[in-house]
Structures are given as structure tokens and as C-alpha cells.
Design brief:
This protein is an alpha+beta fold. The protein contains 4 helices and 21 strands.
């Protein structure tokens, strides 16, 4: 087993070339298969690890297998976990009659057997096991506008997206600005907060006050979750505000000035066109 701090160090070697099964939600007693594969040349040993649910969880080795060899399971996983070993750069693990404590995040990893390189991890597969009668509850999503104090003091604006009342703890939040995904200035809680039988998750988007005080800007928070075996989404939208602060007044003055300059340029172009036409008519009369 590895402590969480060691897991963090290991995941610094995350290898996106490893393809894992996407996140899953299953019912108690179901059976499932976790698949992992890669396309890199060489002689590889492949592994599956489990990170159980909980703040003090430790990473547990489930199985290892050298290419073409049998799977070697750790003792506690031998009864319900099965694998035919690594074949053609792929290692799959089947779990029979899943239990509630099978919930967790499962990481596939590979290691160059000859070079003895550090473990190279996949992105992880999050498995949630629900009781037979457990209900999947969709989240309520709301966006809170930035505080006036932050805008006045720091010239920044923080939008807060709150997803609450959902179950199970299997949700992520994404920000979009004018239809484009935004990652800069985004901070999302690493762990959902438990509120009894449901969960909540918060994400923050920090932008400039100038960007906020543009009523044409469209800020969207998207909650992605799994239901009935598919990923579903709920979106909430808020638009930039004109407001009544000095910053917003400056923005409005700048916008008004811009419009005025634009109109003046058009007017100037029209006058210039009239002048040129007049000169051409005068020239024709003279000659």
C-alpha cells in the first residue's frame, strides 16, 4: 500500500497513452470489466491499483502481469477479481458481484520491465457501487454573481458555481465563457462535500472586472454527471453586468467613446466620398 502523498508523486508520471475504461456507476451485485491498453513498443509489466474512497485511503496493488504471462493477484483480491494476464499490451480485470466497498478509483499502470523505469499511470477509472434501491439524484446548479467589495478593492470578479443535492458523489463542473471552455482562473473543490445523504460541489471562476462589466459576455457553468449509464449535463448561464460601480461606468464611457469614434470615422468617409465625387464632376466640366 502507498500513502496518499506517495500516490501524488506517482501520478506525476501519468501516461495519457494508457487507455482506461471511463468512469462507471453500477448496482450492488453487478459484474463488470476494467480494461486498459497501450500501443508503446517494448517489454512491459502492467498493473491495476485501487484507491478506496476516503481521505486517508491508501493505494492498493490488485494485480500485476508481464506481457504474455499469467496475472498475479494480491491475496485479498483473488476471490472475486479475475484476469487472463497481459496480452497484446492489454490488461483487463473482471469483478464478479461487486460490493459497496469496491467503490473507488482504479488506476492502470505500466513499467518497462527491462529498463526498470518508474510506473507510468493512466488517468484512472472511478467506480461507484450503488445499493439495489439507491436513487441517482440530479444536482441543483446555481451561479452567484461576484461581490462588489472584491471588484472595488481588487479589480477582479469571482463567479461561484454551486452544484448541490446530488447523489452519488460522481460529478464534475466545467466553465465556459462565450461558448469556449475556460480553465484559466478556475478553481474547483477537489472533494465533494457530504450533506447527509447528498453531496455538493463548488467551482470558482476569477475574471477581470472589465470582463465582468461587459453585458455581452456569457458565463456558463456545466455540471456533468452519470445517469442510466450515460453522461448527462445541466447548464446554468449568467451574463456580464453593467452595474453601477466606477469600473462599470468607465467601461460604459469607453464603449460610448468607441461608438462615437466609429460614427465619426464613417461620417468622415462619407464626406471624403462626397468631396471626391465633387472633384470628379468639376474636372469633367472643366475638360
Amino acid at each position: 500500500m502507498f500513502p496518499c502523498w506517495f500516490l501524488t508523486a506517482l501520478l506525476a508520471h501519468v501516461g495519457w497513452a494508457l487507455q482506461q475504461t471511463p468512469d462507471m456507476i453500477v448496482r450492488l451485485g453487478d459484474s463488470l470489466t476494467l480494461n486498459c491498453s497501450h500501443k508503446e513498443s517494448g517489454t512491459w509489466t502492467m498493473f491495476w491499483y485501487k484507491l478506496p474512497v476516503g481521505k486517508n485511503a491508501t493505494l492498493q496493488l490488485i494485480v500485476r502481469s508481464l506481457e504474455g504471462n499469467k496475472a498475479e493477484f494480491e491475496e485479498e483480491f483473488k476471490s472475486r477479481f479475475q484476469s487472463s494476464g497481459t496480452k497484446e499490451k492489454s490488461l483487463s480485470v473482471a469483478i464478479d458481484h461487486v460490493l459497496l466497498n469496491d467503490s473507488g478509483t482504479y488506476f492502470c499502470a505500466k513499467q518497462d520491465t527491462l529498463a526498470n523505469t518508474p510506473l507510468n499511470f493512466g488517468q484512472g477509472t472511478r467506480l461507484t457501487v450503488l445499493g439495489k434501491n439507491s436513487e441517482i439524484i440530479e444536482p441543483d446548479v446555481v451561479i452567484f454573481s461576484p461581490s462588489k467589495q472584491e471588484i472595488q478593492e481588487k479589480k477582479k470578479a469571482t463567479l461561484v458555481c454551486l452544484a448541490s443535492g446530488f447523489f452519488p458523489d460522481h460529478l464534475n463542473l466545467v466553465w465556459k465563457v462565450n461558448g469556449v471552455k475556460r480553465t484559466e482562473g478556475v478553481g474547483t473543490d477537489e472533494i465533494s462535500t457530504s450533506n447527509g445523504s447528498t453531496y455538493s460541489l463548488t467551482s470558482r471562476l476569477r475574471i477581470s472586472a472589465q470582463e465582468w462589466f461587459n453585458p455581452l459576455n456569457r458565463f456558463e457553468c456545466i455540471a456533468n454527471f452519470f445517469k442510466n449509464g450515460t453522461q448527462q449535463s445541466i447548464q446554468k448561464i449568467i451574463y456580464g453586468d453593467t452595474g453601477d460601480s466606477p469600473i462599470s461606468e468607465n467601461y460604459q464611457r469607453s464603449a460610448t467613446a468607441g461608438k462615437f469614434v466609429y460614427i465619426m470615422l464613417i461620417f468622415k468617409s462619407i464626406l471624403y466620398g462626397i468631396f471626391v465625387m465633387g472633384m470628379m464632376l468639376w474636372y469633367k466640366k472643366m475638360y
